[in-house]
Amino acid sequence: MHRPITKKKIKKALLIRPPTTLPKKDLFSGVGEPLGLLYIAATLERKGYLVQILDAQLHFNKTIKKDHITYGMKNSQITEEIKKASPDIIGISWFTASNEHDVHNICKLAKRINPDTPIVLGGSYPTLFPLEVIRNPFIDYVIMGEGEPRFPKLIEHINNDQHINANGIISKDPASHPNANQPLEFIKNLDELPFPSRHLVDMKKYKDVNSKHKFADSPEGLLIATRGCFNKCYYCCEYKKSGTKIRHRSVKNIIKEIRFLKNQYGYQNFWFLDNNISAGKKFLQELTAAIKKENIRWSIPSGIYPDVIDKKMVKLFAESGLESLGISVESGSERTRKEIMRRTMNLDNVFIIRDEAKKYNLPVTGNFVIGILGEKKADILATLDFIEKIDFDSAYFYIALPVAGTDFYNDCLKRGYLPKNYSNIDEAMSFKYILNIPKNSDDFLMEPKHLEKIILNFSKTLKMKENKKKRK
Ligand code: B12
Ligand code: SF4
Q: Considering the entire predicted model, what is its pTM?
């Protein structure tokens, strides 16, 4: 039988996003409202619980330690905020392996304040490594997958002193651990969710903190239209967390949220943070047509799968206020895309999209990844060649980084290619080739220095081209 940590009936929850630590060389990439926590807060509020949010990144402070910088509140401030909130339960978000230190630190601080307050972890990392996370002495429960249905369910279980036997929830009690191996259940109808409880955070402060960090590219409103992904890319694990089907909200529900954000906060510029918003041509067409009537600016930072775009769609995008059309090409080498990355897409269509977009002055940008395990020099040159030929308005390229939980990471681990000192924090680095592959191995690509030099030279040429275009 599961023994509760607290005897108190839970009425008050505190949801925390920890500060974020990055390698010194990485640039701070902005802070926006923690949508996942705000969604959970809204569900809890709907059920009558009192909820507070502590966004420890919503504070301008940099703590520099050797090669890393922690952005966000200091321990003393976090401790004070937790004491002030005096919660009956604490939920903490754990995004990627790179946040391990920050998460562990917050759990420790919280347990020091009151060891009886249950600590619940959720987010991408605990979803992928639940049994590892529950071993942490400061963590009492792990919630996998979507937190909205599970957090209230956990509170009910604790309040009723029940054994935890629910999909995606585990406790210290080993009897609950088989839950970690069951296939995750997902919310079927996303429209049933209340909008994120943005009233629980100081929304005006995000822009302020971003500008103090010199992060200029600050959006106004953040939204999610879909969850899940139909792809199983080698370097991603989203499908393991959110399911292999894209579930989308109705267009009506999305527009209602946009209008709410316009009226409540005066927003005119929106970012859709979807992993892969490409939930079919029909959905994208209907959404874009509805957005066009709202007279706003909008962006899709993760980019769009080119196969769902045709000429008609490009015109609609241009008319709808889309800031730029981001296309997730990832590699110019067909071998890399299909055989390694598992991304089947039609690149001929990308040329058609680009030409069409030019007609409407809609900037086109592309995302590219190089140096993934199995790539050869010829594949990298094919990507650089593609970038030159396609002549996008901007191209962003990253050196492949094995994020814990991905098949890419697992293969690197198995073959011993992760550097000995590869700390979780390094996961946040996207501009360094970190794989340590012996020269005599078939997987050997080239010396990291050599790869970084190719990228540097290519970036310089690309920048020069972009500047020339701007001057024209
Ligand atoms: C915004 C974002 C960022 C922003 C964060 C800005 C900020 N601080 O505000 C920036 C640009 C900095 C960023 C950086 C990175 N990111 Co990012 N990012 C996202 C993005 C696009 C949106 C997050 C979001 O709001 N999701 C929507 C909400 C509804 O979902 P959610 O957050 O997952 O929350 C749900 C559940 O996870 C769960 N849950 C979450 N927290 C909690 C807490 C509790 C207590 C409970 C019970 C449940 C729970 O319930 C929520 C509601 O259902 C996601 C993609 C995505 N769509 O999720 C990627 C994503 C999270 N990022 C990812 C990655 C890999 C990175 C980087 C490592 C990339 C890199 N190499 O540089 C860095 C890490 C930097 C760092 N150390 O933090 C991966 C994580 C994969 C993983 N863990 O394995 C994702 C999933 C993208 C992907 N498909 O690969 N990112
Ligand atoms: S990289 Fe994008 S398309 Fe591929 S699995 Fe992840 S979310 Fe889906």
A: 0.96
Nearest atom, ligand 2, residue 275 CA: 7
Relative to the alpha carbon of 398, which ligand is closest?
Answer: 1
The set of residues, in sequence order, having a beta carbon less than 8 Å from that of 266 and lying 6+ positions away, is none
Residues of the chain with CATH 3.40.50.280: 12-181
Q: Is the CB of 246 under 6 A from ligand 2?
A: no
What would the pLDDT profile of 245-295 be if each residue is shown by its tens digit?
Answer: 999 999 999 999 999 999 999 999 999 999 999 888 999 999 999 999 999
Q: Which ligand is nearest to the CA of 308?
A: 2
Q: Where are the CATH 3.80.30.20 domain residues in the chain?
A: 219-471
Query: Would you say the CB of residue 187 lies under 6 angstroms from ligand 1?
Result: no
- Find the 329 Cα to ligand 2 centroid distance in Å: 11
Counts for the chain of helices (H) and strands (E), in that order: 16, 17
Mutate to test the pocket of ligand 1, among 95, 226, 257 (most ligand atoms within 8 A of CB): 95
H or E, element range at 227: strand 226-227
Task: Find out if CATH 3.40.50.300 is the number for domain 12-181.
Answer: no
Coil/strand/helix, residue 188: coil
Ligand whose nearest atom lies closest to the CA of 249: 1
Question: What does the alpha-carbon distance between residue 209 and residue 218 come to, in Å, rounded to a whole number?
Answer: 10
- Decide the pairing of beta strands 269-272 and 221-223: parallel
| CATH 3.40.50.10540 for domain 219-471 | no
Residue 454 CB–ligand 1 contact under 6 Å: no
Token duo for residue 182: 């069951």
Question: β-strands 62-65, 68-71: how paired?
Answer: antiparallel
